[in-house]
Amino acid sequence: DDFFASVATKSDSGALRGDYTHADKNYVVAQNWAGYTPEQHALWRRLYERQAKLIPGRACDVFLDSIKTLDVSQGIPQFDRTTEALYKATGWQLVAVPGLVPDHTFFEHLANRRFPVTVWLREEHEFDYIVEPDVFHDFFGHVPLLFNPIFAEHLQEYGKGGLKALKLDGLAFLARLYWYTIEFGLIQSPEGLRIYGAGILSSGGEVEYCLRNPEPNRIPFQLDRVMRTLYKIDSYQETYFVIRDFQQLFDDTAPDFTALYEQLKAQDALPANTLLPGEKNFLVA
Ligand code: HBI
Ligand code: FE
Fold this sequence. Notes:
iron; alpha/beta; 285 residues; binds fe (iii) ion; Phenylalanine Hydroxylase; two-stranded parallel ribbon; 9% strand; ArAA_hydroxylase_sf; 13 helices
């Protein structure tokens, strides 16, 4: 269907990884945890160890507390076991998926507090960089923050917003919001800027780059500015947006976006490296 055609053009290989033949109508599959090889668990451990060395003093406290509690350093986690703890904490469940799923399906899951987690793990040669989300990106990057009640609430609202955006032809704007927060967001802390974006937290090089390199912009989160700003999918970000706290993310994205989408459709998108006159640019520590 058009989903596979659209994603096939997006992904380099011209086809989707993952086995979609057993997926149900919500693209959910069995995780088949027993099917992972010792080599795959070893690769997970090496990915985990790489990130565990990088995140102290850089990831936000919510992430650091949650990843410790999750206790998944020894191998690829069993999603159902995590769901038991997660459901008690914030009412979210993990659902195993073969890989990228159609936008509508993705939003439908989020709107019902189900987070889709890819079942396959990258190959050895993708240790440093991978195009599509794999189980390490989805689980290590995204799952820890789902234990935070405010963030969990926001992500469900984001899912509901996605279903509305599809009807309003606002998906491109909403994807930028997702990109610059859930995937590449920074957050203020008393000790300085910290990371909450999954795309950064699951990557080897961007953890250091996003906080320390003088090159990229780091500007305060402002919804319309984020939704106007283009992003890079195959290099480090040229701009990071900084929230004060998760309450701000929830509050600022709570209103209906219909009028904002109409306003944005009448404006030019901004290049990823834009810094507008008067905009505050956080200095690197
Ligand atoms: N599917 N499994 C999966 N994971 C994602 O993060 C994902 C997706 N489908 C669509 C999508 N993300 C993005 O296009 C959203 O912004 C809609
Ligand atoms: Fe992601």
